Amino acid sequence: MTRQEFLFLSNPEKFLFYALAFASLGIAAWQIAGRARLWLSGKPISWGGPQRAGWLRWLPATSALRWWWGNVWSYVLLQRKVRSSRKRSGAPMHLMIFYGFLTLFIGTTLLAIDTYSPVKFHRGLYYLLYEQALDWMGVVFVVGVVWAFFRRHSMSRAELGRAALSPEIDEALRAKQSVDGRRRPMSHALSDNLALGLLLVLGLTGFLLEGARISANPHWFDATTSPVGFSVSSLIGRVSPDGYRVIWWFHAFWVFVFFSVFPRMRLRHLVMAVLSTAGRPPASMGELAPISLAEVEQTGQIGVAVARDYSRWHLMSLDACMECGRCTEVCPAWAVGKVLNPKQVVQDLRGAMASGEAVASAVSEEALWACTTCNACVEACPVLIRHVDLIVDVRRNLVAEGKLSGPSAVMLRQTASTGNAWGAPAANREDWMKGLDIPLCRDGVEFDWLLWVGCAGATDPGAVKTTKAVAALLKKAWVKFACLGPEEACTGDPARRVGDEFLFQDKAQQNVSVFERYAVRRVVTPCPHCFNTLKNEYGAFGGRFEEVIHHSQMLARLIAEGRLQAAAPKAAQVVFHDPCYLARVNNESDAPRFALGELTELNDALIPERPSRSRLAEPPHLGRKTLCCGAGGGRMWMEEPPTHRPANRRVDELLATGAQTVAVACPFCRIMLDAGIKQARPDDDVRLVDLAELLAERNA
Ligand code: SF4
Ligand code: SF4
After folding, report:
1. What range does the domain containing 370 cover?
2. Closest ligand 2 atom to the C-alpha of 326?
3. Based on the domain organization, do 514 and 466 belong to the same domain?
4. Does the Cβ of 346 fall within 6 Å of ligand 2?
5. Which of 126, 444, 498, 637: disulfide with 411, CB 3.0–4.6 Å?
């Protein structure tokens, strides 16, 4: 049981088919190679690990192969991001198109192998199953494409999550490129419709061809193995050999068109997404790549001035962008009317990669400074583009060129001179301890945990309340801890994310030498920004810890061990705001809820006698999808009109739950939400507290 390939086709026709097939594939390869030349103009990607000599260096290490395969498996074949980030019909529709296309592609490849290799396996039971799989997955593919058409034309832009594609933005981008002398791109709507139309034609002509094949050359098993093709053959009736050849060429024509044009359409993500996801840097979302002095001496510059200053992977990832707009949909800066549109940043950088123009003129500087580095865009992006890397790398260059002014420039000077982003002298880091008998490392006390206070925790009056509550809880639970007092300096997180990489590195080295002096191995901190930097970024500067945890994680442990009691707020009276650098960047949203007496998976795992019902009010954005307060990325020290504050949007969401207490777990969030609450409810008595304070009240 099998079927004959090139049925009724003459040898010259076969020759013509091969010529056209190679030509269309060549056109696709030529277009991709043109882009690859641009990617290769970037900096090499370092994969770490032992350096290998000789020809071996050209081969990827086994660990790199495992990494690539793991990424392809998870993000491409299992469509992890698509399944987790798309809403309503978006995910199933995309999955149908993807798996349908993938099956047809694999099926065609197997057919080609059988036809051209000496091994003939396309027969017997395997062949029957093969035909049936292709038939049904062809239906899945066509239904997915039709669904996409209807969805596109029946849903509003907002429902599609395509705020980024508003006609104004679209037109502005096209006009800009027109002025720059670049070819005026097709509108997104037209391009999308053409892409979907092409896929639909491929699917439908495939079924037409199968029906014609069955009509012209029927087999006894066709009705079973190709039910759709068989139905089509019943509809079209008898097909002559010449009729079959016409239909065959018609289908082949659209295949050639597909290969020739897909690299110029959003469909290019079929290839680019595989490349970008496979080779994504093995760095966590919260880790920025360091730059070395040697690199600066060699290149004569800091950060990214033109696109080729990015790594090859970052340049390649720009081409993987499918312009879906999901990054813009979740961007807190865009949502409050700022010019930052992460999708457009990627598009502008793509343009700069091709034109060679300076990045700072291709992308608006105002947009670059508006980023809070909240990573919502990175989390949402299905092709794993790292917008924060792209933005901070340009900021580094702008800072080095002296283009930063205002309060954030003052913050950098303060961090450099006092070791405190707020500018308080080092000696003031002990002020909060007065009368509390806090153990200090310099006194030679034995300790298991370093309580890392952070600049805000030692300086800001609200955050100081958190610090005191955490210290009181640690004492209550008999945890052996100590603080560094004046020996603690800013981790350098705000400086790094504003773009002053070498100030960050200076602070990192200073702190690491203090850690070594006191043999610090475990750190607990109430600041998610310090937590992220110590945990994910200090390793590159010699920070060797057994554990770095956030105070919510420490409190959850102590509750689970029966050393503290969880807070017990009245049902729905407390709403918890997940900090971006805890929930999204470091994937921790259970521990704070557990500490607040909420039902979580942690409850199940750690204590059998969990609270009987959910106690927290929850906002629409929570966990990894939390909404940024607007303080990160140095935005805390940048001026913005009250109407453009992300915190106000978040406060509206939190208060809409009806809760009278807003619980936080970050000093930065506390400062921003405090201002937002005072603006939204100047006469109301909404309470803003850190979760540690609620626990301290319960465990007093
Ligand atoms: S990190 Fe946050 S603020 Fe910056 S572009 Fe992404 S979503 Fe917008
Ligand atoms: S950067 Fe990612 S999320 Fe944003 S438009 Fe491109 S593919 Fe979509």
Report:
1. 286-400
2. 3
3. yes
4. yes
5. 637
